[in-house]
Fold this protein.
Amino acid sequence: MDMYTKVAWIIPLLPFVSFLLLTALGKGFRTAGIWIGTIASLSAFVVSLLVLLERLKPNAVDYNNGFDWITINEYVFTIGFEVTNLTALMLVVVTLVSFLVNLYSAGYMKNDERITVFYGYISLFTFSMLGLVLSDNMLSLYIFWELVGVCSFLLVGFWYTKPAARAAAKKAFIVTRIGDAGLLIGILLLFWYMPGHSLGFTMIESVFDGQGGTIATSITTVIALLIFLGAVGKSGQFPLHVWLPDAMEGPTPISALIHAATMVAAGVFLIARTFDIFEASAFAMETVAYIGGFTAIFAATIALAQNDIKRILAYSTVSQLGFMMMALGLGSLTGGIFHLFTHAFFKALLFLGAGSIIHAVHTQDINEMGGLGKKMRITAWTFGIGALALSGIPPLAGFWSKDLILTVALEENPLLFVIGLVAAFCTALYMTRLFILVFLGKAKSSKGSEVLGKVKESPWVMTVPLLVLAVLSVVAGFVETPWNGWLGTWLSDDAEAPHGSTIAIICSIAVGVLGLLVGWLIYGKGSISRTFVTERMPWLIRLLERKYFVDEFYEVVVIRSLRNLGTGLIAFDTYIIGGVVKLAGSAANGASKIALRLQNGHVQTYSVAAVIGVLVIVITIIGRRILS
């Protein structure tokens, strides 16, 4: 009974053992490294699937097990694992995407001399995310949370000989530290105010229970906002989204893993895991909803003007994460997790499809592509399925999850409903633009024409993951439909209201189809001139191309200010502190030289010194009497 649930701790252990083996073997064992990493991820997926099957049984009970870790006086810190319906679902998503990325990388990274190191990093990354998912308390979750950040630094900067990769790795690490600092402070406050100073998720749920429990609402709001700050950093929400597009400097399989199932998913999962805290604060919920809604439309508009295929998909991820946050802020745990679930499959599909394209043409600029659909049919068809799913076209998975979010927004906040519709329209438009420029028509430049003649479909180790993810992008959405609320009922005991809003469904379909149609008229048929907006509003195009100048703002206001402050502190340390120390040292050195000359063993010197001393004493006494 629940045999696999009780040994769920094995799931993160499998990729961790793989990491240890690959590290011990070194980069010389290329083939062995591929097999070890892939088999470990497959094994973790199989066990995760068995755990999920046990959780599908009626009346399945949450399982928690652990041990005392650190005891300091009356404080006892425990560490363990907890299996719930939410964590079981996340285990399957993480391990499945990780396995497919491992398999895909055998083709994509086969010529890299450090492929064994690459597989070791993937294994450590997977272990970190799985440990985060299974953690039964906030302290151990934070440990794995930081380890996920370290792994992203290693993988984004994997090609460290490239200056852009090094810069992107540092940027990702530093920007996410801002959010992580907020999360740490939030955990410390939670520890201080929780009864018994417990950080266990079971205790958190019982204390808050939607009402705040014994903790004041103001304190609850502060804790929730600090936790959300951590999620903003990891999940690339405005204004800490700037690291995510630059992270595209890493190998494309890692882009798929980061954007689909690991790092960026961690922030959304954190909000879902601590959802009771947020429900106890109306202000915190509104903050999450509005930040998510703004991020969704903000990133979607930026994606319209990008030309790098991976950056388009990166801003798409930022936008879709905004949809998830908006759903959670509006009170729909099912909506946020459902979109996380479906998005993992079609976004992994799109990134791996982009990797297949880059592997064939050796460029990331969509303006240098074109006509690839004839040469790469599997990549084209699967990428098209992913693009339609992302655009919210029925009956693909993205439609059902986005429809649920829009339905909740229509019921709870009409303004966010309109924002969601505009973001959905932009999504369909930029994905249509991307697909047409890459796969249809002719090569757009001499470089593209030169490459096109040599293009061929990727090897089977790269196309099989595309086919699997394409199937999931079609069928995964049927776990939660307007007439079947199974996922919401299964995730929580309290089933959410039906979400069969006719208005929301019609609007969702309409904006998706309209985006496809406008994209086809502009980039496919040419009925609408591509220069229509460029000629009339060049400032708008520049604004979108430069990503609303957010990076420039950080450069001028934050980075330069900190750099100037650092320069000032260095000058203060060098000339003021260093000068005082140097003066004191010089004075002591001079005094020691004088004393050394006086203590030279010559009687004449001692006599002169004695006479001088007597004269000084006499002069001092006479002076004091005169003054008195």
